[in-house]
Known about the structure:
By secondary structure, the chain is of the alpha/beta class. Helix content is 36%, strand content 21%. The radius of gyration is 23 Å and the shape is globular.
Amino acid sequence: xxxxxxxxxxxxxxxxxxxxxxxxxxxxxxxxxxxxxxxxxxxxxxxxxxxxxxxxxxxxxxxxxxxxxxxxxxxxxxxxxxxxxxxxxxxxxxxxxxxxxxxxxxxxxxxxxxxxxxxxxxxxxxxxxxxxxxxxxxxxxxxxxxxxxxxxxxxxxxxxxxxxxxxxxxxxxxxxxxxxxxxxxxxxxxxxxxxxxxxxxxxxxxxxxxxxxxxxxxxxxxxxxxxxxxxxxxxxxxxxxxxxxxxxxxxxxxxxxxxxxxxxxxxxxxxxxxxxxxxxxxxxxxxxxxxxxxxxxxxxxxxxxxxxxxxxxxxxxxxxxxxxxxxxxxxxxxxxxxxxxxxxxxxxxxxxxxxxxxxxxxxxxxxxxxxxxxxxxxxxxxxxxxxxxxxxxxxxxxxxxxxxxxxxxxxxxxxxxxxxxxxxxxxxxxxxxxxxxxxxxxxxxxxxxxxxxxxxxxxxxxxxxxxxxxxxxxxxxxxxxxxxxxxxx
Length: 489
């Protein structure tokens, strides 16, 4: 596959549309437009939303989180789960009700859901208030698409639908307005070649395509210069980074290069496919201090038969070999994972193999899902005889087991002093710091340890964005609480 890079000439054309749109939007609304960009799903989607916001900002937009205040509302969607999809349709419906009293309002839907033909057709027929629908491969053309909306409205109920099918593109140099001033997602590749039988990602994101390492390292250096304290390398399967490039870095080499850049920061990465998780990668994590000692390694199932049916290309034994080697080389390493319950044809005995895997690995936390059929995937055509109520019972059993594992994992932290990146304000209500006194000039803060564990503590808001030392005093199965060390407040 030949990667299609969006060249300078194409980006210059988008910049020309940006300048024209500044005037057209001001004229349409009679004031500088307010935009809302709402992203659903994975960290990659969040980064796409930040690029959409960056382009809108250059068009003169300010931002709001309220659809009631928005002149432009863009919903950046996720297609991984059916429940999330239905939720998005409900939210879009609410937005179109807003438009009924504000006809000049513009509503756009983009992302993975929009890339699916049956979804875009449903929006076309059932949501006439949506003005713009565009897929994952044309995100960089938002200025042009908006320009078409703003200049062709002489046509009756003009709408723009742009969802081309292709292997995907790479667009460098897009403006990015990041949601978080402390942590930054840094895409290193797009798309996926694995075609797991349950997953729609290759169908909506295209094939794997890696950014050039020079572009990634340049962006990482800029993020560090801008003061970001945590950089997460993003991709559907970061472990396969570079396989489509000639004379460039592998993922372990790239990860080490980022981790060796000067500055005080942490490096994380996700998502990491077990089939490509090598000992070389684990060795890099072990010897590079800035790389967090935490690995998100989605296993999906503990049954070899189910893993084969999922087209995962590894066995339970191979997965456990990775875990054992990592624990040997990286003292204190933590693992998190994704689990699917009730895959088509899964038996209760096979489900119990997943439960036993959870006990054997001892995950700090899990992202757990009941299987959700996705149109266009092979699993959607498989026999699925287990009733939904039975799958729900399995799901609850799994949650209880992970709750116990998480509690044991978190309780081991009590009494230790951990370096914590303070990310922002926390909450007293319903939190494990509830009942603790807060003095004047202090607030409840939250951050994460190197191993990815949430920590609540009390301190001055000026600590947000800094590394601090916290003595852990309390553990729950989802978070820790502690006391800021003397001299750090």
